[in-house]
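Revision sheet: structure tokens.
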Amino acid sequence: MVAAVAGFTAVALGAFGAHALRDSLDTQMLQVYRTASLYHLVHAAVLLAIALWLQQGRISGWLKFSAWSFCTGIVLFSGSLYLLAVTGVSGLGAITPLGGLAFLAGWAGIFIHAVRSR
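Predicted:
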């Protein structure tokens, strides 16, 4: 369910940015918004892959950790970039690296799961 919500919101926000914001944002802020949308959608797809692994009985604390890390990354990384692009509040950029670290932690969790599953 979380992967579906993440994917749905990624597509909806991406479409909103492409259509409703293209004339109101400058080129730089539109690119910031596109980056948010790309990372949001990619990690929504990875959340779906994790959900499928878990449904196949590959229950792993590391996969659960990765899922939570990706959710956190979507909120912090993509969320801060969406808000930065729309509001222009530059202080939001300080949150973005925390989301990036959450994404990295999620990928590290998948790696550890893979190594331990061998």
